[in-house]
From TrEMBL:
This is Ribosomal RNA-processing protein 1. One of its GO terms (biological process) is rRNA processing. Its main location: nucleus. Keywords: Nucleus, rRNA processing.
Length: 241
């Protein structure tokens, strides 16, 4: 399978096919391509993700859409270690570029694939023992694109969606337990949201991040006092303590 195949319309159509054998064959070819290749340039990965984006765009029935979203996210665990970060960056760059073009009838399947990618990413980090350098690299991609503090190119809807699902996906990989190791991982994974809460120039983003950070599933949050809502510009915030 050479580079041109991932850009060809027939390949994209096969991934979006309603019949499972055709879809599975295309996915198997793509898995072989990704797992066996050691050097993929950023441009290669952007071209690949453009094709994957349009395969989901053309998928027009609920069950095939769900299956395809699951299949695309299943590519993340099979990647060679040196391809993981560039692959994820290309995915988020593609979503950033295309997000505001997604119409309301197609949005649900892209919300799903976004959730699946975050979940698959956390699973890879878990299986790798939450290795510090890899975690730092992955969170760097999140901080660079979907959870960027001040990049105005990031669609607000995409940023909000990632914030909304963040704790859900943490829970699925079992890091919301009350023990020392889980608390360490919680602190690391919640850092991008903490940065948004403290540094975002946009009030709605700060509030959304605060809401996620106060999720009752996070150990200790059930015992916290509720935070005072941030006043809007020009509003009296009451007397200072």
């Amino acid at each position: 399978m050479d580079d041109s195949i991932v850009q060809e319309t027939p390949f994209v159509k096969q991934l979006a096919a309603n019949d499972r054998p055709t879809r599975d064959k295309a996915l198997s070819s793509l898995q072989t391509y990704l797992s066996g290749r050691r050097i993929l340039t950023p441009l290669d990965l952007l071209k690949l993700h453009k094709g994957l984006f349009y395969s989901l765009w053309m998928s027009d029935r609920p069950i095939p859409q769900q299956n395809l979203a699951n299949a695309l996210s299943s590519l993340v665990p099979i990647l060679p270690s040196d391809t993981l970060i560039p692959f994820l960056r290309a995915f988020w760059q593609t979503m950033q570029r295309e997000w505001e073009r997604i119409d309301v009838l197609r949005m649900e399947k892209f919300l799903l694939v976004t959730r699946r990618y975050v979940g698959a990413t956390f699973e890879v980090l878990k299986k790798g023992g939450w290795e510090e350098e890899r975690v730092r690299g992955v969170l760097g991609v999140f901080g660079e694109i979907p959870l960027s503090v001040d990049d105005v190119r990031v669609p607000m809807g995409m940023r909000f969606h990632v914030i909304d699902l963040w704790v859900d996906e943490m829970e699925k990989v079992g890091v919301l337990e009350e023990n020392e190791e889980c608390r360490r991982i919680q602190d690391v994974l919640m850092a991008p949201l903490l940065k948004l809460r403290e540094e975002s120039p946009t009030k709605t983003v700060r509030m959304k991040a605060r809401e996620a950070l106060n999720d009752e599933r996070i150990p200790g949050n059930g015992r916290r006092e509720p935070e005072v809502e941030e006043p809007t510009s020009g509003e009296w915030a009451g007397f200072a303590d």
